[in-house]
Amino acid sequence: MLVALAIDAALGWPPALFRRIGHPVTWLGHLIAALDARLNRADRSEAARGRAGAVTVALVVAAAALPALALQAALPAGWLGIALGGLLAWPLVAARSLHAHVDAVAQPLGAGEPESARAAVAMIVGRDPAQLDSAGLARAALESLAENASDGVVAPLFWGALLGLPGIAAYKAVNTLDSMIGHRTPRHAAFGRVAARLDDAANLGPARLTGLLIALASGQPRASLRTMARDARHHRSPNAGWPEAAMAGALGVRLSGPRVYADRVADEPWLNAGAPDPAPGDVRRGLAVYLRAMALAAAALLALALAGAG
Predict the structure, then answer these.
(1) Are residues 282 and 141 in contact, defined by beta-carbon separation less than 8 angstroms?
(2) Which of 297, 253, 232, 222 is nearest to 140 (CA)?
(3) 171-188 as b/e, with b when 16 or more CB fall inside 10 Å?
(4) pLDDT band, very low/low/confident/very high, at 260 (cuts 50, 70, 90)
(5) What whole-number distance in Å separates Cα of residue 98 and Cα of residue 6?
């Protein structure tokens, strides 16, 4: 996992490679979309759609984990196997792309170009960017940064360190399932129920670990930990509130709160409610905290590797 993180930090997923072969997550996405279209039929009962959703989860997780298990079994021993394993896990870690997406908001926001910042925010959040002022854009970017530090980086590394290539592959399958069908919409409320609950379970540990990493990397660990302990459970998600609250406390700003989506207004509670809204410069500060937190994650992986070698 340390090798995978290092390759991702250096290269990301090169656009030329994406154009040529796509990406493992897009491959999973095509499979999920095909199963959704075939099995999630409106003429079925809610119970039948729920069972079909469970079958979809099983098929997609198996399609990701079983080839990874076979590849892991074929790896040679020693440093060559470690290097090849890291190379295979590399596409499933998204540390560099997360930084790039949030930096694409930070740059125009800091330059006083809100329309460009709205276009960049639309790439990473589901809320309506046209309704967001400067503070709203900064909040959206920081919330996405904190939540996806868990979903896109720490959780894959966690499950990879625990269960190897099958673990990281299975986690990415579960997370992709949740992002595509784990919504409380008329179409997916029943079909995506198992996917959503499994994703919640898979992120219980990593989300709290990400919050701890953010707090330790923040320079304000007491404030960050205090905010996380007080406010994380107020979030609509059982997991996203932990890294988001830690980031709010780390930067001394408030996050979450009411937000406008295309079809509704979500009246969410504030995280770190008594603090001011984030300013454009706080997104840059958040990115610096994120980089330090990922460096701490790398150090933890190195310590685990050395302990295992000993």
Answers:
(1) no
(2) 253
(3) bbbbbbbbebbbbeeeeb
(4) low
(5) 15
pLDDT (mean) for 77-89: 96
Would you state the structure tokens that stand for residue 105, as one six-digit string? 């908001």
Query: Residues with Cβ < 8 Å from 1, sequence gap 6 or more?
Result: 86, 89, 93, 157, 160, 161, 168, 301
Residue corresponding to tokens 């006083």: 112
Mean pLDDT on 54-77: 98
pTM of the model: 0.94
Beta-bridge partners for 270: 256
From residue 164, alpha-carbon distances to 49, 61, 65, 87, 302 in Å are 32, 15, 10, 13, 15
CA angle at 121 for the pair 226 and 92, rounded to the nearest 5°: 75
User: What is d(CA 284, CA 286) in angstroms, rounded to the nearest whole number?
Assistant: 5
pLDDT score at 129 = 83
Query: Sign of torsion, CA 94 284 259 131?
Result: negative
| Cβ-count burial 236-273 (b if 16+ within 10 Å, e if not) | ebebbbbbbbbbbbbbbbbbbbebeeeeeeeebebbbe
Indicate the length of the chain as a whole number.
310
pLDDT tens-digit readout, 91-114: 999 999 999 999 999 999 999 999
